Amino acid sequence: MKVEQTTIPGVLRIGLEVKPNDDGWFKENFHREKLAALGMDVVQHNVAYFAEAGIVRGIHAEPWDKYLSPSSGRVFAAIVDLRDNATFGQVETFELGTSDALFVPRDVGNSFCTLTPHTTYNFLVNEHWSPERVAVDLFDPELAIEWPIQELSYTERDATNPSLEQLRRQRA
Questions:
Q1: Which range of residues forms the domain containing residue 32?
Q2: Under DSSP, is residue 71 helix (H, G, I), strand (E, B) or coil?
Q3: 3-state secondary structure of 21
Q4: What number of other Cβ atoms are within 10 A of residue 131's Cβ?
Q5: Tens-digit pLDDT profile for residues 68-125
Q6: How does DSSP classify residue 153?
Q7: Tens digits of per-residue pLDDT, 112-151?
Q8: How many domains does one find in the chain?
Q9: Which of 12, 63, 66, 115 could anchor a disulfide with 74, C-beta 3.0 to 4.6 Å?
Q10: In what order do the strands lie in the sheet with 119-125?
């Protein structure tokens, strides 16, 4: 496991060793002690499968830490700091494949776009799911996220997320 700090405090990019074998490959995606050393005690593992490229989800910030990694396919991840701090609104993007993971702390927004069909995305979290979250518009011009695919598919719920400026006003 190779851990790198990113420009957003607490967000870590993690390189995972993928070992080719005669049948395909093997990776250690989850190791309790290694994740505990990062400050994460996993309580739930979620898996999402996406049949098509261009499916986008987010930008959601939940009250739990997340460890994200594709087990098949590739994703473009856009991470946005939504915490009340000096880096509020800062964006960093990543392309993630099977040898990559991200550690995203609670209250930092996470979004992703599938780059390939048949993408499977793993989400390990340190709190059980609840509907509580903060969300921001995927296409907010202030964030200026350059989504890598022209035609995107997203949920109606994500289409109605507030702008960063609306979120600022709600918190004031």
A1: 2-171
A2: strand
A3: strand
A4: 5
A5: 999 999 999 999 999 999 999 999 999 999 999 999 999 999 999 999 999 999 999 9
A6: B
A7: 999 999 999 999 999 998 888 999 999 999 999 999 999 9
A8: 1
A9: 115
A10: 2-5, 12-15, 100-104, 66-72, 119-125, 44-50
